[in-house]
Amino acid sequence: MRVLVVDDHPVFREGFAALLGSIDAVRVVGTAATGVEALAAVAADPPDVVVMDVQMPEMDGIEATRRLVAEHPEVGIVVLTMSEEDATVFDAIRAGARGYLLKGAEPDEVVRAITTVAAGGVVFGAVLAGRIAEFFSAAPTTAQSRFPTLSAREHEVLDLVAAGLSNQQIAGRLFLSQKTVRNHVHAVLTKLQAVDRAEAIVRGRDAGLGRGGRPAG
Questions:
Q1: pLDDT tens, residue by residue, 6-42
Q2: Which of 23, 24, 54, 174 has the most neighbouring CB atoms within 10 Å?
Q3: With 50 as the cut, is the pLDDT of residue 197 above it?
Q4: How far is residue 143 from each of residues 13, 138, 204, measured CA to CA in Å?
Q5: Across the chain, where does the E strand assignment appear?
Q6: How many CB atoms lie within 10 A of CB 90?
Q7: Residue 145: which pLDDT band, with cuts at 50, 70 and 90?
Q8: In Å, how far are 78, 92, 113, 170 from 49, measured between CA atoms?
């Protein structure tokens, strides 16, 4: 797995990169100290996974994640930070991060997260997963609150999937390439843990989606 490490603290960044580089399954292809540097590094040589800090100068990890997901949806983002605040966790998820771990996580937990995200999955630490579960149980049942891990674009895609549109039709509606739509649909299925498109349609419609975009006939 090709990994880019992004963190503004040089000691942590280089130490963490060295740790990952010592693992046979991982190849660190670069490091970056800011979100701006991360965008440039991914544009030059896209990795499989970016391990992203949150608090950084120039551009923080949340905004960098949002831009990377929009420009390179095939690249998985694992946020690795000191912050346990719910707002930061959900901001990262909404930005499109597919993993969120605290910097105190054990190395094997980090490697499992990177492996899972590289394979298209989603992973969160046990404590954070519990908080997400609490949020689901306490939140009102609007479509946005029922699927808080989806980005705004992924909500749009799920709405059109629930309306029964094909990837080609969704691409036309949203002025995206079919490849980009496929990546968004895959992310939606992964985040919802839906076994297939049919399950995503049912869950989307149960949440009130798909009513305004159904094709004629």
A1: 999 999 999 999 989 898 889 999 999 999 999 999 9
A2: 54
A3: yes
A4: 38, 14, 8
A5: 2-6, 27-32, 49-52, 76-81, 99-102, 123-124
A6: 16
A7: low
A8: 7, 15, 10, 27
- Residue 83: is its pLDDT beyond 80? no
Task: Please report, in angstroms and rounded to a whole number, the separation of the first and last CA atoms in the chain.
Answer: 45
Range of the domain at 56: 2-135
Tell me the pTM. Answer: 0.61
Question: Residue 74's closest CA among 98, 100, 41, 54?
Answer: 98
Pairing state between β 27-32 and 49-52: unpaired
Q: Look at residue 65 and tell me if it is in a domain.
A: yes
Give the span between the Cα atoms of 201 and 207, in whole angstroms. 10
Helix axes 61-71, 35-44, angle to 10 degrees: 20
Please report whether residue 161 resides in a domain.
yes
User: How do residues 101-143 score in pLDDT, each as one tens digit?
Assistant: 888 888 888 888 999 999 888 887 666 666 666 655 554 455 5
Domain-ending residue, one of 75, 103, 135: 135
| Calpha distance 206→97 (Å, rounded) | 25
Tell me the β-bridge partners of 101.
80
Residues 41/64, Cβ–Cβ less than 8 Å: no
As separate numbers, helices (DSSP H) first and strands (DSSP E) second, the chain gives 11, 6
Count: domains in the chain:
2
Q: What is the CATH number of the domain that holds 115?
A: 3.40.50.2300
